[in-house]
Amino acid sequence: MTKQFRTEIIAVGTELLLGQIANTNAQWMSEKLAAIGMNVFHHSVVGDNLQRVKEQFQHSKNRADVIIVTGGLGPTEDDLTREAFQKIVKRDIIEHRPSMEKIEAFYRKQKSKMTPNNRKQARVFTGADVIENNVGMAPGMIVSENDTTWIFLPGVPREMKQMMSDNVMPYLQQLTGESSVIKSTMLRFIGIGESQLEDELSDIIQNQSNPTIAPLAQSEGIAIRLTAKANTQEEATNLISKTKQQIQAKVGDHMYGADEQTIEENVFALLKAQNKHIGAAESLTGGMFTEKLIAVEGASKVCLGGLVCYDTNVKENVLHISPETIRQYGTVSDECAAEMSRNICTLLDSDIGISFTGAAGPDSVEGHPPGTVFIAVYDSSKVSIARKFTFQGSRQTIRKKATLKGFELLYNLLK
């Protein structure tokens, strides 16, 4: 029978509390732990202060069976994880010779002098299972103390992930006796809100058991996480596939991919398959659309370029928007957006043109309140669409929503 463990993740680092970096480690670890059936009860973040780290460790050990600590294993004075734990368990700290030799070899190879404080990175607790750091210096440790398992890992994400994948996950699976397979996949949707998606799938969600269905609102659209538990990988895959087919039958028109797929990758694939090239004329989005598209590997095969035409004079003199169009309809209009998409096709000799114009805020533009956006798509086969949208949020949020909507319009046109 599988034993249930209360698990907690502690991140040590003042930079996390100051918001200088995001605590992505905890998110990644929680996902991996859930896949082997381990329940994460708490995420905690504590700054680089010896007393506060000690207090957090004391509090956590009273409520958790497995405690994973990231950060505070480096060479500087504010790396205090070992010292705080020692005050609780009274274990000796010794130098781990294999790790020290690795650190020394690194500095020899770099032909640079190793400062004395780097020896601190090789220090481990007596009786600990030492985890080799294959991508960095400081080793990790697994320490069993009074029925609590402590796992200490570096805070650097790539170092932590290597140790978790190679050493910690197999150890925890053996510890818990978990033998079943837990598999998750994300289905990604665009052009549909979270409430509408839940309403469309209400009968499936209400009758869910295995796999479970969890709708999630994300910055790049809506996603559904399907999680299946089974005796084998094949069985879990089949369970997910069956539910996925049921979901596609109801809202498949809005589904553009799964797992790590992005809408821009799908648009790129469609453009490439149809041997079409695209150019963008961006006022409101200021190059955001083009930047996302060219971030896709191989984008040069489909993206000829883009023009940021923020100023009215640039629209007229570079993109050759008719002064009459601007005089009669303004730069924030269906008519101007449509002409922008057509003219960028001519200017770049592309098959498809897309344009963005509007008022991102905080002020109104030409009488249009912030959030008013016009997007047009022109295809050289004479297919042309121009749409008006009203988005809510900050200036940056409106620009991001407009960019995402542009990809949605393109995706629907191309597919």
From TrEMBL:
InterPro entries reported for this sequence: CinA, CinA-like_C, CinA_C, CinA_KH, Competence-induced_CinA, MoaB/Mog-like_dom_sf, MoaB/Mog_dom
Cross-referenced SMART domains: MoCF_biosynth
Residue ranges constituting the MoaB/Mog domain according to the UniProt record: 8-174
Pfam families cross-referenced by the UniProt entry: CinA (PF02464), CinA_KH (PF18146), MoCF_biosynth (PF00994)
Domain of life, source organism: Bacteria
SUPFAM superfamilies per record: CinA-like, Molybdenum cofactor biosynthesis proteins
Family designation: Belongs to the CinA family.
HAMAP family linked to this entry: CinA_B
Protein name according to UniProt: Putative competence-damage inducible protein
